[in-house]
Structures are given as C-alpha cells and as structure tokens.
Amino acid sequence: MKTAVIGLGSMGWGAAISLLKAGFAVQGCDVRSDVLTRFTEAGGDACTTPASAVDTADVVLIYVINSKQVEDVLFGQNGALETARPSTVFLLCTTMAPSATTAIAERLEAAGMQVIDAPVSGGHVRALAGEITVMASGPQEAFDRASAVLDAISAKVFRLGDRLGAGSQVKMINQLLAGVHIAATAEAMTLAAKAGIDLKTLYEVIRVSAGSSWMFENRGEHIVSGDYTPRSAVNIFVKDLGIVASEAERAGALTPLTATALSLFVEASEAGLGLEDDAAVAKILARKSGAILPGMEG
C-alpha cells in the first residue's frame, strides 16, 4: 500500500516515520526544504507539492495547521485533487471546526474520494512511536481500506460512527480540556514561583497527586526546565480554543474557562511568544506577577 502525508510538522512527521517503520511506501510533502531533506534521509520520498505526493497513493493523511491550509492542499493549485485517483482514502487529521470538516469532506466525496474525519491527539513523542489516539468517523469502506495505516500510526482508534464531523467534535472537546489544563499549569507554576516554592520539587509532588493532569505532567516539565522549544506552539491553541469558543457560541453553550484560557494564549501570541511552546503562556503570568521562571531573565 502506498501512502502520502501532507504536512510534516511534529504530528505529521511522527505519522510518516511510523508508516515507514511499518513498511509502507511514504511520500511526504512540506513547504520546508530542510524538512524534506530530513525526510529523504529517513527513507521517505520527498515531494514539493500535494499533487506530486498523492498521484500513486492509496491513503492520504492531511496534517496541516488549519482548515484554510487543508482547502489549499486539497483544492488549490497543485493540490491533491489534481492527481488523486478515484476512491483514494483521505484522512483529515487536522484539528478543524466540525462545520469546516463536514464541508471539506463533502467536496472530497463529490470528487469521488473516500474520507475519514480523523483528528489525532497524543503529542509528538507518541506520534513518533506510532501510539497516538485517533478520534475517527466515516464510512465503513473507508475504514476497511485504511485500517493498516491507522494501525501503524496509533495505539487507539475510537470509531465514532459514520457521520463525518463527529471526530472533529470530539477533538474539539479534547482541545478545550487541553488548553484549559495548560493555562492552569501555567497559573499553578507561576503562583509557586511567586511563593518561593522549588518548582522541581512541586512538579514531582503534583504529578503523582490528585491535582495532576496529562498536560501538567508534560508541560509542567517544560516550565521547570525552562525549555520552550515548540512541540506544540502557543498559536496552535489560539486556533483550537478559538474553534471551541465559536462552536460553543453557535450551540448556545457557556464556556467561561475556555474564554479565560483563550485570552491568555492570545496575549502570549501578541507578546511575540506565538511560535514558542504553548507552555510559554506561563511567561505572561510570571511577568504580570513579578515572578521569575526558569528560562526567563531577571
């Protein structure tokens, strides 16, 4: 089976490497030449356009940043639909508003393609290990054809029914929790620093206590070490919590914690931290509190 991965960021790279390890032929597409060079060195077939990446693919995984980029790589100039064969299976792994996912899926199906709404979670380490979680929905035939690919990139695939958009709805709720937990981690670490608590000790205590979360355990370590190398950037949660806020408003649901966390991520982005690790929102709270975190200048 031949596969293509469009977008070799942290999650797309992990998926592409996992597919190579599983013995798939993988064509990878990205706008960054250095990433394509690394992909070639890893054993993949590097492509500069989506059209050239998918011309022989049976299954295509889309891992770009947002719905606009998904539309561009699918339907734009040198986009995937220029060369994709009929019934090619497209896995939409990008986090998008459910309404955007549905609209894009309908256009793909109208063009004779098969689609799985397949947003993912787990971070870059699990992606490299082929152990991400996939929140997937779509027709059975598409799942049957893509099952080996899904097995190669994931530890768990949640089947959420046939309705395209259901996967994106569940991912939206996951991102609500993830964003709020990152903001809460930043607040907790900043308060601890201001109170004079040793952050490494605090981290070791909380990570095995009731107040912990997956995000505290993961992002808390970034704050303790002062390492804001972007695994997932601040701007990702500006986008994702923005999706939560807009979809909640459309549904008439109240999301006050989302609103607070989103404002913190927006402030961090506007302060020039948008491309740093999302744990960098702690720097905003620290500056306002007069606290010094590891990696910050006094």
TrEMBL record:
Q: Name one Pfam family in it.
A: NAD_binding_11
Q: What is the E.C. number?
A: 1.1.1.411
Alphabetical list of PROSITE patterns matching this protein:
3_HYDROXYISOBUT_DH
Q: Which residues form the active site?
A: 171
Has keyword GTP-binding?
Answer: no
Gene Ontology molecular function, alphabetical? NAD binding; NADP binding; oxidoreductase activity, acting on the CH-OH group of donors, NAD or NADP as acceptor
- Residue ranges annotated for the 6-phosphogluconate dehydrogenase NADP-binding domain, each copy included: 3-161
Domain spans labelled 3-hydroxyisobutyrate dehydrogenase-like NAD-binding: 165-284
GO annotations under biological process? organic acid catabolic process
Q: Which UniProt keywords apply?
A: Carbohydrate metabolism, NAD, NADP, Oxidoreductase
- Gene3D superfamilies the record matches: N-(1-d-carboxylethyl)-l-norvaline Dehydrogenase, domain 2, NAD(P)-binding Rossmann-like Domain
Catalyzes what? L-threonate + NAD(+) = 2-dehydro-L-erythronate + NADH + H(+)
Q: Is Oxidoreductase a UniProt keyword of this protein?
A: yes
Which branch of life, at top level? Bacteria
* Reported function: Catalyzes oxidation of L-threonate to 2-oxo-tetronate. Can use either NAD(+) or NADP(+) as cosubstrate, with a preference for NAD(+).
Q: Which PANTHER family match?
A: 3-HYDROXYISOBUTYRATE DEHYDROGENASE-LIKE 1, MITOCHONDRIAL-RELATED, L-THREONATE DEHYDROGENASE
**Which protein family is named in the record?**
Belongs to the HIBADH-related family. L-threonate dehydrogenase subfamily.
What is the name listed in the Swiss-Prot or TrEMBL entry for this protein? L-threonate dehydrogenase
Specify the species.
Answer: Rhizobium lusitanum
